[in-house]
Design goal:
The chain is of the alpha/beta class. The chain is about 30% helix and about 15% strand. InterPro entries: AB_hydrolase_fold (IPR029058), Cutinase/axe (IPR000675).
């Protein structure tokens, strides 16, 4: 990864922070994209973010600033997420955070959570929800593990990079406290070789289906809205659900079945880096995943 590019991203994060130095919101969706996706919103959350922002007022989206390259970059994303939350906790103590991670972005989120394992800490309390898709460090046999329909068909399968010979820690799974807190959902599409490589029919195509799956986008929206104090009701006609969330009108707002034209993207204050920089060598798997994501963009 060229040093100039990394320096540019660091500068970009600083500029975004400066622009929003005086901004506080009810909640922030921190979206962390997968390998080779361009800086900005991830294709994995294209609808659920817009639907959540549209249903629960006072929220914004922040897109984690990091290279999303195939080697040694997830720790840079982790540093950005931690810096963002830590500074926000200081500047905007009532602000809540929804952490979303796709593929390598899930790895970024996994590692970031190790800074917030104390249930009494302000950072832990500020995190309202964690939603992962295609998580390579998925820990098997957790009730928070669901397939694309919300079922348990691949719950017993571990992620492709989860190492059973190592203790759960930085770069090897999600902290246990987030499994027991009911703040987490870890979605693994059936036959996705990244989060369930032991599947009988594993194929890389499954890894790029999340963004186009109405079931996944609806499930994600319902989960996120519920963690913000909203309530959801499943539709009976095969379309997306109706979501009730606290807002100015107090009325139910339907979640659209069409792809939104754009999502809100802004930032909240950031501050000094947390110092977390776990330089873990990421395997060539990221190259393969990244090429698949590029193909999805071009399709």
């Amino acid at each position: 990864m060229p040093f100039k590019y990394i320096s540019f991203l660091a500068g970009l994060a600083a500029v975004l922070a400066q622009d929003a130095a005086s901004t506080c919101n009810n909640y922030v969706i921190i979206s962390t994209r997968g390998t080779f996706e361009h800086q900005g919103p991830s294709i994995g959350f294209k609808d659920m973010i817009a639907w959540t922002l549209g249903n629960v007022t006072g929220g914004v989206e922040y897109d984690t600033v990091y290279p999303a390259a195939q080697n040694q970059t997830f720790y840079l994303g982790t540093d950005d997420v931690v810096r963002y939350i830590d500074a926000g906790v200081q500047s905007c103590p009532d602000q809540r955070y929804l952490l979303l991670g796709y593929s390598q972005g899930a790895s970024v989120t996994d590692a970031a959570l190790y800074n917030y394992t104390d249930p009494e800490s302000a950072g832990y309390k500020a995190i309202a929800a964690v939603l992962l898709i295609g998580n390579p460090y998925k820990i098997p046999d957790k009730v928070n593990d669901v397939d694309q329909l919300g079922g348990s068909s691949n719950r017993q399968l571990r992620g492709s990079l989860y190492n059973t010979s190592l203790p759960v820690g930085y770069g090897n799974g999600i902290p246990e406290v987030f499994y027991t807190s009911n703040k987490l959902i870890d979605i693994c599409y059936e036959n996705d070789p990244v989060c369930a490589p032991q599947s009988a029919h594993a194929n890389l195509t499954a890894h790029i289906l999340y963004g186009g799956s109405l079931a996944v986008q609806n499930m994600g929206t319902r989960f996120l809205v519920s963690k913000l104090g909203g309530a959801t009701t499943n539709s009976t006609n095969g379309t997306s659900p109706t979501t009730s969330a606290s807002g100015s009108s107090g009325s139910s707002i339907p979640v659209s079945t069409s792809t939104p034209s754009s999502t809100s993207s802004t930032t909240v204050p950031t501050g000094p880096a947390s110092g977390l920089a776990v330089a873990v060598q990421m395997p060539a798997l990221w190259t393969t995943i990244g090429l698949a994501l590029v193909s999805a963009f071009l399709a």
